[in-house]
Amino acid sequence: MLAAFALQFAVIFVLATMRIEPDEGAVHILGFGLSFEPLTWRSFGWLAFFYALMFFGARSGVQAMLSEEGVILLHPERKSRGRRFGKVTGQDVVEDVQATARALGLPTPDRIAVAEKPEPNAVSALLPGMGAVVTINSNLLEILPRDLVPAVIAHEVGHLRRRDSLVSMALGAPGWVSTVLVASVVWRLGEGVFGSSGVVEFLSRLLFALLLYGCVKLALLGVKALGARAAQAGEIIADAHAAAHCGWQCIVSALLLLGQRQETLRNLTAGLADLSARIGEKDVERDLRGVVSRFPPTGVDPVAAAAAAPRLFVQQRLEALRDGLCVPLTDEDIAALSSKAAFALRATTAEKAAESKDEVRPVPEDADWRAFDVDASGTLDADEATRLVAELKASPGKLLFRQVTAVHDRFEAHPPIRDRVIAIYNIFASTN
């Protein structure tokens, strides 16, 4: 984290203090007079402007998240009205957050909310002037047994304790730099380029401007990569907070259910493939949201999700025709037509796959964590989780969730769930 902030500050400092003017004492490069003024009000103004922009951008992002449709505030105001989210009520969530915060030596977060969304996720942030915020998607609470809910809450409170929202701000900062400070420098360089006295000077100045821009972009990618590594480490440490609070097998089971649901939803959306394009629909995101919202909130079977996608898509379209254009369709008609259309669409897709001449790459074998759930409880106890980890360690090429952990992305803020499971086991259960 410190390395990311240090590199980020160095890039911002160079851009904010750079002067492109032919003043006395400047270093002349290809006709440009370059100098640095680190101790001037103009430089301080640029630095203050950028960091204020970064702070208020993060603050407005959190405020926008809390004001989204479907967000139910649980604390300090109680707006859930006794609703249940899976196995818990809004009051249960507040009490769990308060108890976990006390256990980790923190005050109760200033705002606690549940967002009615079909994707399993949770967000926490700690910003000056706003305080601590914890928001949990309703679907995360719907897929977890009651005894695992404190584990995900402890994970988010662990983020608050480490102030990991600062890392998120650092990850978002390069975009602001590119649009503000880099734009200002390129503008000043552009003035010099088009003020050249000849073709040779024009080309040399243009080359210098492009090289400087490229160097800045590379430095910003370095900031993002370092910030991602810090964020990944923060996820492991937040998992460790949860494991210390609830037991390591609880956070392992919660991660597995989370990954299972994520992969199921990805299979669901992949099952839609080109359906929107077939009917000329441009708002694909709307179609995806509509289909995901129709899928059972506790569904965690990726194969069933892929099979259900065409039916749910057609059902959504037929209901829109009935409700929007008064097409005389009953619920029974829609169900029957959706099933027939889904069958035909799957057959067409299978035919295209058979006719495809694309090279079929071998698919690596998965480690199905559910095969280790000997007692069919839906979660793993300590012995079952130990056997799963042993299998993962013995076969490094095996994946837990293909679409979630297939690749290690250097710019991804979350490490693969496979790595998180092994890390928690090594910290809390391994005897080696």
Spatial strand arrangement across the major sheet: 4-7-9-8
> Quick one: how many beta strands?
9
Helix content: 55-70%
Q: Averaged pLDDT, please?
A: 82
**Order of secondary-structure elements:** HEEEHEEEHEEEHHHHHHHHHHHHH
> Which structural category fits the helices and strands?
alpha+beta
Span from first to last CA?
A: 29 Å
Biggest sheet, open or closed, and with what strands and sense? 4 strands, mixed
| Global outline | globular
Any key phrases for this structure?
Zincin-like; 16 helices; 3-stranded antiparallel beta sheet; 432 residues
Walkthrough of the structure:
- The structure is a single chain.
- The protein has 432 residues and is an alpha+beta fold.
- It folds into three domains: 2-60 and 170-230, no CATH class; 67-166, 2-Layer Sandwich (Zincin-like), CATH 3.30.2010.10; 250-355 and 363-432, no CATH class.
- It is 63% helix and 9% strand.
- Strands 4-7-9-8 form a four-stranded mixed beta sheet, with helices on both faces. The protein has a three-stranded antiparallel beta sheet with strand order 1-3-2. Strands 5-6 form a two-stranded antiparallel ribbon.
- α1 (2-17) runs parallel beside α6 (165-179), α5 packs across α8 and α7 (181-194) runs antiparallel to α8.
- The longest helix is centred in the middle third of the chain and has 48 residues, at 199-246.
- The two termini are 29 Å apart.
- The model has no long low-confidence stretch (mean pLDDT 82).
